Amino acid sequence: QVQLVESGGGSVQTGGSLTLSCAASGRIYRVNNMGWYRQGPGNQRDLVADITGGGTAHYSDSIKGRFTITRDHNKNTIYLQMNNLQPADTAVYYCKAGINEYGTRLSPDGDEYWGQGTQVTVSS
């Protein structure tokens, strides 16, 4: 069974930094795209950044230049370095990954998995 476990959330003041981690574990054959989404109070869940298996990163306009997504293939882990945090960044941050498990039919993108979410709170 595949799991995504996030860590690194917390509370910071405006201008502060945090680093989120998301580790995939289980009977993993291949991890495809991985990404971070966030959902603020009363809002829908939106893409923050994602990264392909080849290492190509995409960012939402709202966080470009402040956040950096990286990936460690050996650890099946992605990171989100968040700098110059603003109150508008306050949200629950979720990790998503497309994963092919051993013993299942391979699909190009894999099956979709979500982490449990980690809270990021930025105070002014």
Question: How would you characterize this protein structure?
Answer:
With 124 residues, this protein is an all-beta fold. The protein is 0% helix and 57% strand. The protein has strands spanning 3-7, 10-13, 18-25, 28-39, 46-51, 57-59, 67-72, 77-82, 91-101, 111-114, 118-123. The strands form two sheets. Strands 2, 4, 5, 6, 9, 10 and 11 form a seven-stranded mixed β-sheet that branches. Strands 1-3-8-7 form a four-stranded antiparallel β-sheet, with no helix packed on it. Strand 5 (46-51) and strand 6 (57-59) form a beta hairpin. The radius of gyration is 14 Å and the shape is elongated. It starts with a strand and ends with a strand.
How much is the average pLDDT?
96
Number of H/I helices: 0
Distance between the termini: 41 Å
Low-confidence stretches: none
Order of helices and strands: EEEEEEEEEEE
Instruction: Report the β-strand fraction as a percent range.
Output: over 45%
Q: Name the helicity range.
A: under 10%
Question: What's the main sheet like?
Answer: 7 strands, mixed
The rough form would be described as: elongated
Report the strand count: 11
Main features:
four-stranded antiparallel beta sheet, elongated, mainly beta
